[in-house]
Write a structure and sequence with these properties.
727 residues; alpha/beta; 2-enoyl-CoA Hydratase, Chain A, domain 1; Rossmann fold; N-(1-d-carboxylethyl)-l-norvaline Dehydrogenase, domain 2; 4 domains; 8-stranded mixed β-sheet; 6-stranded mixed β-sheet; 28 helices; 11% strand; globular; binds ligand LNIPZVSO; binds nicotinamide-adenine-dinucleotide; peroxisome; lyase
Length: 727
Amino acid sequence: MATFRHICDSVAVITLSNPPVNALSSALIQALQKALGEAIRDSAVEAIVICGDKGKFCAGADIREFNKPSQKRGPHLLLLTDLIESNKKPVVAAIEGVALGGGLELALGCHYRVAHVQARVGLPEVLLGILPAASGTQRLPRLIGIAAALTLITTGKYVPAREALKLGIVDKVVGENTVDEAIRLAKKVIGQPLGSRQLSTLPVQCPPNVEALLAEAMVKVKKQFRGAQSPQACIEAVRAAVHLPYTEGIKKEQELYQFLNATHEPRAQQYAFFAEREVAKWTLPSGASWKTVSPQPIHTAAVIGLGTMGSGIVISLAKAQIPVIALEKDKKQLNIGSKAVISLLDRETLKMKQLGHTEATNSLGPVRFTLDYGELRDVDIVIEAVFENMILKKEIFRHLSGICKPEAFLCTNTSGLDIDEIASVTDRPQMIVGTHFYAPAHIMKLLEVVHGRYTSSISISTAMQLAKNLGKIGVLVGNCPLFVGNRLMVLYLQQAIFLVEEGNKLEEIDQTLENFGLAMGPFQMMDLAGLDTLWGCHVEHGLARPEQSSGISTHHHSSKRYSQLLGILCEKSRFGQKSGQGWYKYEKPGGRKAMSDPWLHNFLSEYHGVNNFKTQKITQEKIIEWCLYVIINEGFKVLEDGMASGPEDIDVIYNSGYGWPKHTGGPMYYASLVGLPVVLTKLEKYYEANPDIPGLKPSSLLKNLAALGNPPLKEWRALLGSWSSKL
Ligand SMILES: CCCCCCCCCCCCC[C@H](O)CC(=O)SCCNC(=O)CCNC(=O)[C@H](O)C(C)(C)COP(=O)(O)OP(=O)(O)OC[C@H]1O[C@@H](n2cnc3c(N)ncnc32)[C@H](O)[C@@H]1OP(=O)(O)O
Ligand SMILES: NC(=O)c1ccc[n+]([C@@H]2O[C@H](COP(=O)([O-])OP(=O)(O)OC[C@H]3O[C@@H](n4cnc5c(N)ncnc54)[C@H](O)[C@@H]3O)[C@@H](O)[C@H]2O)c1
């Protein structure tokens, strides 16, 4: 757990050992306390070094212990940092790998910090719904000042060693032998006064505008983490460091921690943390998993189509140092596409340099542009990202079959077309996988990996490994129309449009859902994605009739309600941000700042009058239910159909792909927070009043679970044996 040995009789080295990341469990904290006590009492020891086993200092408090009420971790870790700091022997932290959360707090208790060049430090507690509650909010501002501490504590950002050195978090960065260097430093400082190294005793250096700085930070986090309480509590704790002596500040830190802990947010965010890791450990009903099926190595890749998605996918691959061949259909498009890729590559290189990667120019894999399919002969994987059109995609896959080596995996970035139909025209249906990236593909973390009927477990394993290599979260889903993310999203967007048809203001709908915590409201999201893309998707998937788009009074397709509004706006060349007008207007085509558009409001009131829609103004609470409960309901239907392995998969898709607020855990976790019987009752009521909206018809899985009360999400599967993955 925490071992203690003498080096050259004068330096004691204490090694934290709790695989895989040396998280501070109660047992490890106790062992550390014991080892420290021994080292402090041992008169032969003149200095102490604390390091972590297997090249990792410490990833912080053991998150798995957070929900065990009997554990009393906090005071121990806090007391430990005070014990380290106040003892008379110098203590040096040797930081390799990570010093995060409680791990960094432990290091801040030490008198000196030496870090390996590849180490990262940070206080990510805010991302877990809490705050650094073992003195981090009080010691860090005393070390690096208010502004930098606020940024780190409210964003949870991981800082690379060189940046940490510049900020003053660490004293030295070394390329190798971190522990040896820490021992050398410890020996050197034996006997020197420690006063200036005891952070709790230092004054906080405050700029004159400190209150303005805190207020600005508050405005920023309220916007960035709408509805979440932990970022605000973090700022309050830092404010305490400004105004109160250390011990009083610590009291405030503890109070705020207790306050947050009494809300649902820590549990929701910690659930989201483990859900991300859970979904990465895919298992197929056949039993195939990482453990049984090795991924094939991907040394080279090709991307077909360099539009919005293709260019981002090229960047993702290049960032992972995978050489890419980028192919377009003609010279003009190749020229446009290559310019887009090169400009993105330049931007990424700059970003990496700013992060301290001086070698950034060499750290992106090479990209080659071509019109010649023959060049794809030897690549290990092809990712197709051409228009969403089945005929075109089949033509391309047929062609690829004849060109690519037999071991090459052929992937499609389709947003929801049938993978099996695409596979059917190839010579290797088992090697066809859906790799559904999210826009912008080089930034968004989510990758839906779509399992077709013929897809082999090796292909799945390889695609899931590729997701990891690209720094993305791969979520395995089944081959249903629109897959999982968009299948739920399309219903949500429709619900929002129906509300507008019924006389509600789109700005109010957006605002309400943003206040709930979504990254953006449905109308802003539609404008960003492109109304033409969405309308095309509606038509392609049989959700609307293209020929009726400009007509009136036909609002049903196969007895299901649909809206023609998207089609009508497209006919008026209102495609969203790209054309400078959609649901909102923008300062120019490609502009980002959405402004309310009087033209649209006039148009909508005419449209409303002509079409005789019922008027139904609804409250904010009902907007949330009306729009979000269809996501939850369809989520249960996805589980019923076996198109996702569990509710965690749906939550991860929404948290990482659609800007769902993590402090509510994800849509399925949120359903359990609201209470399944409540969600069911509301859906029943809405469906009774709107039988032409099938998205509102409660799923039987939801009904069965609600009949059992409100069982915790973790128990859903065990309670309902009938539901199983068909992946
Ligand atoms: C008077 C009475 C008053 C009482 C007051 C009580 C006060 C209580 C005070 C509480 C004290 C608070 C202390 C502290 O401030 C709180 C914290 O430290 S919270 C933890 C902060 N740390 C993090 O958020 C780090 C999260 N981890 C990561 O970012 C990454 O895991 C990593 C470390 C960068 C490693 O990344 P990868 O290499 O990609 O690997 P994985 O992510 O897959 O992780 C591997 C494996 O490790 C598990 N794991 C990671 N971190 C933790 C952790 N902190 N605790 C437990 N487990 C962790 C992860 O789940 C993986 O395991 P698997 O899920 O695969 O089994
Ligand atoms: N845009 C999104 O937000 C998004 C998100 C996820 C998935 N998708 C899917 O990704 C795919 C691409 O979407 P997009 O938005 O990037 O489209 P896009 O229109 O921006 O780009 C498509 C590109 O494909 C090229 N192309 C067409 N035919 C080709 C051919 N025969 N050979 C080579 N290149 C050809 C076009 O020239 C164009 O540059 C679609 O299947 C879409 O559904 C899009």
